[in-house]
Design a protein that fits this description.
The structure is a homodimer. Chain A is built from 7 helices and 3 strands. The radius of gyration of chain A is 19 Å and the shape is globular. At the A-B interface, helix 1, helix 2, helix 3, helix 6 and helix 7 of A face helix 1, helix 2, helix 3, helix 6 and helix 7 of B. The first copy, chain A, binds a DNA duplex through helix 2, helix 3 and helix 5.
DNA sequence: CCTAGATCGTAAGTATACTGTCAATCAACA
DNA sequence: TGTTGATTGACAGTATACTTACGATCTAGG
């Protein structure tokens, strides 16, 4: 026999994975901004700074693959980081299309100073759960994000993107 | 003794709850848009339509509480739904500030037609996990979102927001 | 060498998702 | 009653997050 048509109610939305992911993301950003309000950094800008710190001299396209942002979005993110003097762009000698990214002194400093606030934020997001449940949730999420990587418009390419660096070293 | 300072690397970001929530949200939106591409509806617009269907005659402020969006954001969402002729706004007689929201015939029709695609999208998001893990993840997420509700800038007020409706019925 | 295709950064366009602020309106209290 | 304070929808401003497109540049194939 045919399956019952799903009910058209808001309660079905409340239990839908998509809704819960959106809601949790809203909450996570809100907590991050609250804990880090004395620093002039958004979650996305923070991730970009960390990635540049880890891979100095990376270019914007590869950076977008490393933190899984869209290339266009990243352009404006970098612009803002540059305006705040946290990031510096230098043209690459071998390829005139490319601009290499480096942290400025201020960028390295704010990164060092903001870490405790970020740690507090990350902890607060999971705080309502029992410790065992926190671990379980993170484990499942890591799995799911990884297995769904290709479904995203901008898949994460943490390793691929870095072949230009360190190849010679 | 003092705890070790956390390492400043991109790998720490990959394991951070905030990063995983953002990434999962990206993936969820991407899957939704793919499954629903023949319908001219975003996830947010879909949620708004469902909520208006469940609560006909709701006003924009209450709607924002029911689906946990910011009031400002919702304004433009409604505008777009109105431009597509899925939603209608009528001034309330008792309160000249309020505009009441109703689905149009097209709005009710697209809602009916899009449901299967939305169901497919929701299923696809969790598909990579084993069935037991899907249940576990959803259970933990429902808990976490609920317990963190007040941490969000726009807490969900599913019940409060509806006191103006149905009180008389 | 020189053109075909790929890649880089950028730009314009759309849609969330917030922050404020504002005028109009309403509700409640002195 | 009349004024204070709250609420509603609207607007401006900032920041993601995506799409498509385009010029500049690089790389490979002939």
């Amino acid at each position: 026999m045919p399956s019952k048509p799903p009910p058209i109610t808001i309660d079905a939305v409340y239990a839908a994975p998509g809704y819960l992911f959106r809601r949790m993301q809203q909450i996570a950003v809100s907590i991050f901004m609250e804990e880090c309000k004395t620093f002039d950094l958004t979650p996305v800008q923070y991730a970009a700074l960390i990635a540049i710190h880890t891979h100095p001299g990376i270019d914007a396209t590869r950076l977008s693959a490393v933190i899984a942002f869209d290339r266009s979005t990243l352009g404006s993110v970098i612009e803002r980081l540059q305006a705040k003097d946290f990031v510096e762009r230098r043209p690459a000698l071998e390829d005139k299309r490319i601009k290499l990214l480096y942290l400025t002194k201020s960028g390295a400093a704010i990164l060092r100073d903001i870490i405790p606030a970020v740690e507090r934020a990350q902890a607060r997001m999971l705080e309502p759960l029992k410790p065992a449940d926190r671990k379980a949730l993170m484990g499942l999420l890591v799995q799911l994000v990884d297995l769904n990587n290709e479904a995203s418009r901008v898949p994460l390419r943490a390793d691929d993107a870095l072949e230009h660096l360190g190849k010679t070293g």
